[in-house]
Specification:
This protein is mostly beta strands. It has three helices and 33 strands. InterPro entries: PQQ_b-propeller_rpt, PQQ_rpt_dom, Quinoprotein_ADH-like_sf, WD40/YVTN_repeat-like_dom_sf.
Length: about 525
């Protein structure tokens, strides 16, 4: 029998009907008091194994507080899977599978790869062979095309219905005319800035002073529209609703970051520097988020506010295998800013640590102050914002420390669950997921079906083959991703928003809701 969500996370109250009123504050959510009010006593998650199953189990699609497994896919034992949360508007999902260099005695450039697509029900649509030089990954969808990248900084457009190639371009050749140099070049980020795709070509063996290259190609033809050299960039690019591109080149040793923004046509808008490693993380409504530390004016790069989480100790989050920033934060200017981080130390921050070591923060998108916070488990995926205003989050049980091996591989000591929260941090449901492998890919959502990738042998002692299982789970309520409020307002991963909000979403934004 799978235990319910409150046994896992120690919540004291719940909301069974997300459409109804939400009374009270859950024990693992701390609301920041109004000016002059008293700060409530810190709430410590319950650890008593006798805590009964939660009422929220009724809001889960499976029995006994579980999420119903709709379908799953496991590749052959000698193949690696690269899934980046890629889904089109009809709910078809895409990933690539390649021979494992560990099990196949071939030059890495000769490893056989395939592009795979399945329907929303998990039925295979096609399995299309991809040409050498291997290491292919499917990134994003634009109209009836999807875009994949391979070794030597190759970019290819494919028909989403058949997987057939429409065009291909070597961005390695755009950066360096010497073919011998192309083996060190990778496309580290690929974002949509209609009518272009903007790619970041990174030199993985670059010496001191080496440069990366921003390259824009036409999405319909692959023709190069513009290119700009930039210092080495190690974080995904961010794009706003007008197609402006934002990036940050960080020098970890010097603790300096060169921030920049270019127009959709490749004209420099501004360039500035910051102390520390503070690459752009999200943009919406003229506000740009830098890491977990600062809000700036997207038009000028000038500082607007310091986030309360800037006081948190900096460390690396593995929030999904993706060159898109999709899912690292949910940002809607004037409405909400939600991101995971360690325990911060300013006003409204948590006063008590917990085994998971991580908190989900709701911050004021104008002042950066903490509105609410709640404990989440180790290695959470960042929140996905839905059309009905809920936040989807995948994490581990709050009460369970991972330790060195406790959270890795299919035989991990603890499992994961899919948590649904209101924009104020109140829990709507928390449903156990099948298996104990860590779900670490960006989530894809279509009509209430969430598709996730789990690494089933994610352990330093394994054979280094990334054996990823792809699993689809159902919510109880059909839902879609929100059309706005994403880290890239112009679109990052396939479902990360639209260039402009349309329909009801546009009316809601216009009305200030």
């Amino acid at each position: 029998m799978v235990l319910g969500a409150c046994l896992w996370v120690g919540c004291a109250s719940s909301v069974e009907d997300s459409a109804g009123p939400m009374a009270g504050t859950p024990a693992d959510v701390t609301q920041t008091p109004a000016p002059g009010g008293e700060t409530p006593a810190p709430q410590v998650p319950a650890t008593d194994s006798r805590v009964p199953p939660p009422e929220t189990s009724a809001a889960c699609s499976g029995p006994d507080g579980t999420a119903r497994l709709a379908w799953s896919h496991d590749a052959a034992w000698n193949r690696t899977v690269d899934f980046r949360g890629l889904m089109d508007a009809d709910g078809n999902t895409y990933w690539t599978e390649c021979e494992s260099s560990y099990w196949v005695d071939k030059d890495p450039s000769l490893l056989a790869c395939q592009l795979v697509s399945v329907t929303p029900e998990g039925t295979e649509r096609y399995r299309r062979d991809l040409p050498p030089p291997g290491a292919w990954a499917a990134h994003t969808v634009e109209g009836d095309q999807l875009f994949v990248t391979g070794r030597l900084a190759l970019l290819s457009a494919r028909d989403i219905a058949t997987g057939q190639e429409r065009w291909s371009v070597s961005l390695g050749a755009v950066k360096d005319e010497d073919p011998a140099a192309h083996h060190a070049l990778r496309i580290e980020s690929l974002v949509r800035s209609p009518p272009y795709l903007v790619a970041l070509v990174h030199d993985t063996f670059g010496d001191v002073g080496a440069e990366d290259l921003l390259v824009a190609v036409r999405a319909d033809t692959g023709a190069v529209a513009w290119k700009v050299p930039v210092p080495p960039v190690h974080a995904p690019l961010v794009v706003d609703a007008e197609g402006n591109v934002y990036g940050g080149a960080s020098d970890v040793l010097a603790q300096r970051t060169a921030l920049f923004s270019y127009t959709v046509d490749g004209q420099l808008r501004w360039r500035t520097e910051r102390t520390g490693v503070v690459e752009p993380t999200a943009v919406d409504g003229g506000t740009l988020l830098l890491g977990r530390s600062e809000l700036v004016d997207a038009a000028t790069g000038a500082s607007l506010a310091t986030l309360a989480t800037a006081s948190a100790e900096s460390f690396y989050y593995s929030l999904g295998r993706s060159s898109s920033p999709f899912g690292r934060a949910a940002l809607q200017a004037g409405e909400l800013l939600v991101l995971p981080d360690m325990r911060c130390a300013t006003d409204g921050c948590p006063t008590t640590a917990h085994p998971g070591g991580t908190f989900l923060y709701g911050l004021d998108p104008e002042s950066g102050a903490v509105r609410w916070h709640r404990a989440v488990g180790t290695w959470p995926t960042a929140p996905l914002l839905t059309q009905r205003g809920a936040l989807l989050l995948v994490d581990r049980p709050v009460n369970e420390p991972c330790g060195e091996y406790g959270c890795t591989g299919d035989d991990a000591a603890i499992g994961s669950f899919l948590r649904e929260l209101g924009p104020d941090g109140r829990e709507l449901s928390a449903c156990a997921l099948t298996g104990k492998a860590p779900y670490i890919t960006p989530p894809a959502l279509h009509r209430g079906r969430v598709v996730l990738g789990a690494w089933t042998n994610w352990d330093a002692s394994n054979d280094w083959t990334q054996r990823m299982s792809i699993r689809a789970f159902d919510l109880t309520t059909p839902d879609e991703p929100a059309s706005g409020g994403w880290v890239s307002a112009g679109g990052g991963n396939a479902r990360s928003g639209q260039t402009k909000p349309t329909g009801g979403a546009a009316q809601a934004r216009a009305a200030g809701r």
